[in-house]
Structure formats: structure tokens, C-alpha cells
Write a structure and sequence with these properties.
By secondary structure, the chain is an all-alpha fold. 63% of the residues lie in helices and 3% in strands.
Length: 143
């Protein structure tokens, strides 16, 4: 139970930092390199969803199985596999939430060329999920 809570906290923290950085970067684009930023940009606001806590907490139980399956692979293939599994997990959880509660808090715009799975995930986030998977592999034994 402690590992579930810890991974839930780690995942939410990483997501809040990630969304703060991405949102800030997107707000910087109109400034075209002018670093005199308005207050909204300087706030570095990040966000997450309470639904994500159990999903990140599930790492405590699911990662050992994923590592067992992918351990024989070369490191690069292994972390790419983690990213693909996370994308698949996001699609499955999006589908589950959509069918159970008729809400997917993170649903992505369908007109984005990278959006797949009824808006449940975006393929352009795959590199970030790969890095996240590599981070899990590094941090998991320490936790």
C-alpha cells in the first residue's frame, strides 16, 4: 500500500511539473524570444487529475511484470517498449473512464494529427512516456 501511495505521489508530481513546463512553453511562443514575460507565463502553473493518482499508483504492482517481460531486450528497445505500454495503458484507462463515467479528463482534441484512440492519447507524447518509463526503471529499485 505504501508503494502504491508513493508512486501515485511521484506520478502526480511529475505530471504537474511536466504540464507547467509545456504550458509555459506554449505561452512563450507568441513572445518570439522576448523574455520579458507577463505574470501568467511566470506562474508556471501545472495541473493533473485525481483520476491519475491510482493510475500512477498502479506502477507499484505493474512495473515488476513489465520489467520481467522487457528485461531481456536491449536498453533502448526496453524503454521504447515502456513508452508504448504506457500509451496503451492510457488508451485503456481513457476507454474505461469514458464508458464507466462518461468523462476522460485528459481527452485530447480529435483534430490534432497526433491524437489517437478517440482522444485518449497523443503519439507525440511517446518520447516523454519513454523518458518516464526509463525514469521508473531507474527509480523503482530505490523505492
Amino acid at each position: 500500500m505504501r508503494a502504491f501511495l508513493l508512486w501515485g505521489c511521484i506520478g502526480i508530481t511529475v505530471e504537474v511539473v511536466f504540464t507547467a513546463l509545456v504550458d509555459t512553453y506554449q505561452k512563450l511562443i507568441p513572445y518570439k524570444g522576448n523574455w520579458r514575460l507577463n505574470e501568467e507565463v511566470r506562474q508556471l502553473k501545472g495541473h493533473s487529475y485525481i483520476w491519475m493518482f491510482p493510475m500512477y499508483g498502479a506502477i507499484a504492482e505493474l512495473f515488476p511484470y513489465a520489467f520481467f517481460v522487457f528485461e531481456p531486450l536491449h536498453y533502448i528497445l526496453r524503454i521504447i517498449s515502456y513508452g508504448l505500454v504506457i500509451i496503451g495503458f492510457e488508451i485503456c484507462m481513457g476507454w474505461l473512464l469514458d464508458n464507466a463515467f462518461r468523462v476522460v479528463p485528459w481527452r485530447y482534441p480529435l483534430d490534432n494529427k497526433w491524437t489517437v484512440g478517440k482522444g485518449y492519447t497523443r503519439l507525440d507524447y511517446l518520447p516523454f512516456w519513454i523518458v518516464f518509463g526509463a525514469g521508473i526503471e531507474y527509480v523503482y529499485p530505490l523505492v
